[in-house]
Specification:
This protein is of the alpha+beta class. About 30% of the residues lie in helices and about 25% in strands. The chain is built from eight helices and 17 strands. The strands form five sheets. An eight-stranded antiparallel sheet has the order 1-2-6-7-10-15-16-17. A three-stranded antiparallel sheet has the order 3-5-4. The protein has a two-stranded antiparallel ribbon with strand order 8-9. Bound molecules: flavin-adenine dinucleotide and magnesium ion.
Length: about 300
């Protein structure tokens, strides 16, 4: 059955199972994506993340194992990246509202105020026999996992595919790609994954990667942004300044078999730039490839 697409996570999500694709399997995979969205979407008032954001500062809240694990990964990644990736930026992200109907340039004092409530160390995670718990030591702290959940979701789909004995698939969750398995029996024949030209998104890809069994995730300033007085305000926020991350980068692509790692890493690299310590040591994971595209179109591979 040919490739199927659905609108999930506010973006187009496509899955291609090639000759292994059945209606039942596609339904299973999209159902999984929809369940993940229902849990992690800050746009849904009845999601688990909204419940946590509303209640975790009043005392510990019991959360699902799944929510706990993704938040824990996020907090650990925040520590590792010196806060470049920060799951506690909800107040700032909401203030800017980039990609929403209320997007605007906030006043300086609003940014300063929101910045005070973005400390990921104010998130406490506790695992006990009775379950998993989360609490916030700040009543204005809000978590936002938009920079990591598509990666988590791609890994979850791959898990399901493995359980079902599927040997190849290409998953694309709004630019968060997983090329699962090998394209063919011939070892030289690999999946071609294009990296968009961030300076000219409708043009040919700026780089084509040949890969098997890996995730390829890109963060950039060209998908969600608005322009005002010639300045581009995009959706990846630097918690240290309170403004959209500003350096010489237009996009960062991360290649590794863990899509949740790639997603967090791409966002973190975009904020921290090429020279940050954790970027130079590739987030502590040896088998990772980084491709930076600068604002003047230079491609830097590490
Ligand atoms: P990434 O770089 O991976 O992530 C950027 C996003 O991460 C930002 O949009 C923000 O949410 C967050 N972020 C910003 N700065 C940082 C930082 N320094 N550290 C950590 N995180 C940061 N979009 C809609 O328009 N409507 C929807 O209903 C909608 N629902 C969604 C539901 C879920 C569960 C998810 C995961 C996403 C949803 N989105 C929705 C899309 C979302 O707003 C982002 O556009 C998307 O997740 C960003 O992915 P990316 O690959 O473009 O960028
Ligand atoms: Mg990301």
């Amino acid at each position: 059955m040919k490739m199927q697409s659905q609108y999930v996570f506010g973006t187009v999500c496509s899955i291609d199972l090639f000759e292994g694709g059945t209606e039942e399997l596609y339904a299973l995979l999209f159902n999984r994506l929809n369940l993940i969205e229902k849990k992690f979407s800050v746009n849904l008032s009845d999601s688990e993340i909204s419940y946590v954001n509303e209640n975790a500062s009043s005392g510990e809240v019991l959360v699902s194992r799944e929510f706990f694990d993704v938040l824990k990964f996020s907090v650990e990644f925040a520590q590792k990246s010196g806060g470049a990736f920060n799951p506690a930026l909800g107040s700032l992200i909401n203030l800017w509202g980039i990609g929403t109907e209320h997007q605007r340039i906030p006043a300086e004092n609003e940014i300063e105020e929101a910045k005070k409530h973005c400390d990921f160390n104010a998130i406490t995670l506790r695992e006990a026999d009775e379950g998993c718990f989360v609490s916030f030591a700040d009543d204005k702290l809000r978590v936002d996992l938009g920079g990591i959940v598509k990666g988590y979701a791609a890994d979850e789909l791959v898990k399901l595919l493995k359980e079902r004995g599927v040997t190849k698939a290409v998953i694309n969750l709004g630019g968060n790609i997983y090329a699962f398995g090998s394209k063919s029996d011939k070892p030289d024949e690999k999946w071609n994954i294009g990296i968009k030209n961030p300076l000219k998104v409708d043009a040919e890809p700026i780089v084509i990667l040949e890969v098997n069994s890996t995730s390829v995730v890109t963060s950039g300033n060209y998908e969600r942004f608005f322009m005002e007085d010639g300045v581009r305000y995009h959706h990846i926020i630097d918690g240290k300044t309170g403004y959209p991350a500003e350096n010489d980068l237009a996009s960062v692509t991360v290649v590794n078999e863990s899509s949740i790692f790639c997603d967090a890493m791409a966002t973190a690299c975009f904020v921290a730039g090429t020279e940050a310590e954790f970027v130079r040591n590739k987030g502590g994971t040896g088998a990772v490839q980084l491709i930076f595209v600068t604002k003047n179109g230079k491609i830097v591979k590490k």
